[in-house]
Amino acid sequence: MKVLANDGVSQSGIDALEKAGFEVQTTTVAQDQLVDYINKNEINVLLVRSATKVRTDIIDNCSSLKIIGRGGVGMDNIDVAYAREKGLHVINTPAASSGSVAELVFAHLYGSVRFLHDANRNMPLEGDSKFKNLKKAYASGTELRGKTLGVIGIGRIGQATAKIAIGVGMNVVAFDPFIEEVDIPLEFFDGQSLNFKIKTVSKEEVLKQADFFTLHVPAQKDYVIGKAEIEQMKDGAGLINAARGGVIDEVALVEALESGKLSFAGLDVFENEPNPAIKVLMNNKISLTPHIGAATGEAQDRIGQELADQIISILK
Fold it and tell me: Which residues make Cβ contacts (< 8 Å) with residue 13, sequence separation at least 6?
């Protein structure tokens, strides 16, 4: 059995698969050459992250394929229903990267309320000549403790983010059309734990109550946050998106930042990824990362191991 990890896979996943007798290839094959490569090499399992697209051309024309695996949560780059109709197994790792994405959300939050993203741009340029000016410019920081975090989408990653927020001392309000109530367990270093119950409220209530917002929703046709939703937020609110590009109207977002309606945004994903809009990239009120939510060594190890376990269970 041959596995092609076209967007890479952790060494832990490779080791587990090879131990079970699989041949693992980590060659990155160009999208337009995938069908030929899979057929020529008789690939049985195709593993991808977010870069490689698995559409009907691959599903229809690669008879050796038995499994398509996504290292991560969202599978919008795979024609999942069609693949399953054709008898293929489609797997992913919905829990493996929750903690790493949640930590990135708070990296953006902490950095933004203390202007770190902008200070790190300006200190190398002006730190030696305008130190006092910069100190004054960044003197009005905000603490997260005691503030309200609005979580839009309280699935696994939303819950992991809420867990950090509660630990920080924030109030959490959440909206999710599919979930009415969640238990958030906080485990501490010494074995103690506390459980917090969050009951979801309407989207309008979250927009009205929260000081900061974080999105944890799948890709969809319409914006989750557009001009109308931003208008319902508190003046000076902050917005983080480490979910999917296209769930925030970036034109409305930039307008709100320029007008002062929003004080900052943090974006790990973008509408036009992998070519984000220049207006977004150049805005000094936006904290930017290049889609690295799951990019920790720990998360990648968990993803690789979970994929390997599922593949071995299906094919062995």
Answer: 5, 24, 301, 303, 304, 305, 307, 308
> Which residues lie below 8 Å from residue 306, measured CB to CB, with a gap of 6+?
93, 95, 96
Point out the catalytic residue in the list 244, 250, 271, 306.
244
Q: CA–CA separation, 176 vs 165, rounded Å?
A: 17
Which 3 state secondary structure label does DSSP give 292? coil
Q: Is 291 a catalytic residue?
A: yes
Choosing from 103, 205, 255, 273, which is the catalytic residue? 273
Residue with tokens 């979801």: 200
**Between helices 98-113 and 116-126, what is the axis angle to 10°?**
60
Q: Which two tokens stand for residue 97?
A: 């990267």
Q: Using only the alpha carbons of the chain, give its radius of gyration.
A: 22
- Report residue 150 as tokens: 């609005």
Q: Exactly one of 70, 156, 216, 291 is catalytic; which is it? A: 291
The 10s digit of each residue's pLDDT in 163-210 is 999 999 999 999 999 999 999 999 999 999 999 999 999 999 999 999
Identify the sign of the CA torsion 134, 212, 49, 308: positive
Checking if the pLDDT of 74 tops 90, the result is no
Look at the chain and count its residues. Answer: 316
Active site residue 244: yes
